[in-house]
């Protein structure tokens, strides 16, 4: 069974994380959530409290086949603060890229990939306004885009398209 890693941070977008998780699990994929919060409790943008499976420091990256990064207000905050957690997220992303493993990023989350210049030679989509942080071929009319190992999507309204693209890529 393929195994995916899903990042949760305070302010994650509920639908983008939890609906994606639910649909992928329904397709017999093992999804493990992780957070940087020490008590593992994470508060979504709509104030839903969920408990993550692992702390970021417990993650064994070699165990996972793909990475999912939902959007939400935390993305902009994390990018502006440019702190230790952001560096850990970047290290995780780099691991998946170096090992040619799938990375799914929705809404504002493609900005993490943009900050690392990973989409420079790729088609992508993201939440309107965030394309200014990303070098690459922005496809604003697409609900979801797959380019090499990257799957990007615009917003919570495009979660189903995001999941379809992820499943097509993961199940190849």
TrEMBL record:
Residues 3-168 form the DJ-1/PfpI domain. Transmembrane segments: none annotated. Pfam families: DJ-1_PfpI. GO terms for cellular component: cytoplasm. Gene3D superfamilies: 3.40.50.880. This is DJ-1 family protein. It comes from Ziziphus jujuba witches'-broom phytoplasma.
């Amino acid at each position: 069974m393929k195994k995916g890693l899903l990042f949760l941070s305070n302010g994650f977008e509920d639908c983008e994380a939890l609906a994606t998780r639910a649909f992928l699990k329904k397709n017999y994929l093992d999804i493990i959530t992780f957070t940087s919060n020490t008590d593992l409790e994470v508060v979504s943008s709509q104030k839903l409290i969920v408990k993550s499976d692992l702390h970021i420091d417990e993650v064994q990256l070699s165990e996972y086949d793909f990475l999912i990064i939902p959007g939400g207000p935390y993305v902009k905050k994390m990018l502006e603060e440019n702190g230790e957690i952001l560096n850990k997220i970047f290290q995780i992303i780099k691991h998946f890229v170096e090992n040619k493993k799938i990375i799914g990023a929705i809404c504002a989350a493609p900005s993490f990939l943009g900050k690392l210049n990973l989409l420079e030679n790729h088609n992508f989509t993201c939440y309107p306004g965030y394309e200014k942080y990303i070098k690459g071929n922005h496809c604003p009319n697409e609900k979801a885009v797959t380019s090499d190992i990257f799957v990007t999507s615009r917003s919570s309204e495009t979660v189903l398209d995001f999941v379809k693209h992820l499943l097509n890529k993961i199940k190849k």
